[in-house]
Amino acid sequence: MADTPFKNDPQGGLEPYSPFVTEQRAGSGKPLSLRGYSLALTGLVLLGFVVMGACASLFTNVGFLLWIYDKFTLVTILSFVGAIAGILMMGRAKSSQSVGLSLVGYAVFVLSFGFTTSTVLLMYTAQTISNAFLATAGIVAVFACLGVAFPKAFQRIQGILFFALIGLILAEVVMMFMGVDQTWIDFAVIIVFCGFIGFDFYRAMQDEPTLVNAVFNASNLFLDVINVFIRVLSIFGRRD
User: What is the pTM of this model?
Assistant: First the structure.
């Protein structure tokens, strides 16, 4: 759930990309149109959900499910290592604008993260999953637009979002051991990650529109969206 440590902003700020600058910067990739860049960004995030769905379908095999249960610790560790490896590859690819490395990194990241996350889907009905997906899509659309419309606001709250997320993680752990109802935590996490969606979408739009940059930014947005989706799923599941 800890999304923020995966975010990369080494310069501590954002350099706006201007579509009117025709000279490419050193190490930059072949630019896409803004429409193509936006489609690539959206398509890659949706691809992550497709991978999650495909992984979830594997668990319908009882033998496979029992094998995963028996090797749960090993699978979890491998998935975590795979996700980190994918993120590192995408980060390196972004600096060199290597399309191949970025796509491999995204594939490794999505397969690793999506595989373990897809186990959550086993606890809910198809109708609940569908409703949660539609609700999440609406939330993402709203906050993506807000990220573009009010960029300064999302820049200012970035630090607040980070500390709020850390506080919620700690509160959730404590409440879990105390056996306290955590419904309000779900709503709070959704609000925090809505803020991250707005900020990450704004930041994605400031990057030079290359395929490599689309891949890198899609990984951040995928983490944001997945966290919102899981929490919405949890809320809808309690109502069924």
Answer: 0.80
pLDDT, position 29: 64
119 to each of 72, 88, 203, 219, how far by Cα in Å?
A: 11, 25, 31, 20
Nearest to 223 by CA among 202, 205, 200, 203: 200
Distance between CA atoms of residues 164 and 178, nearest Å:
21
Tell me which residue of 166, 169, 172, 219 sits closest to 7, measured CA to CA. Answer: 219
Residues 6+ apart with CB under 8 A from 10: none
CB 114 within 8 A of CB 48: yes
Q: What is the 3-state secondary structure (H, E, C) of 105-130?
A: HHHHHHHHHHHHHHHHHHHCCHHHHH
User: Is 182 within 8 Å of 172 (Cβ atoms)?
Assistant: yes
- Classify each residue of 69-78 as buried b or exposed e, where b means 16 or more C-beta atoms within 10 Å of its C-beta: eeeeeebeee
The tens digit of pLDDT for each residue in 2-16 reads 343 334 443 334 333
What one-character DSSP code corresponds to residue 156? H
22: confidence class by pLDDT, cuts 50, 70, 90: very low
Spatial distance between the Cα atoms of 142 and 120, rounded to a whole number of angstroms = 25
Phi, psi of 210 (to 5 degrees): -115, 165
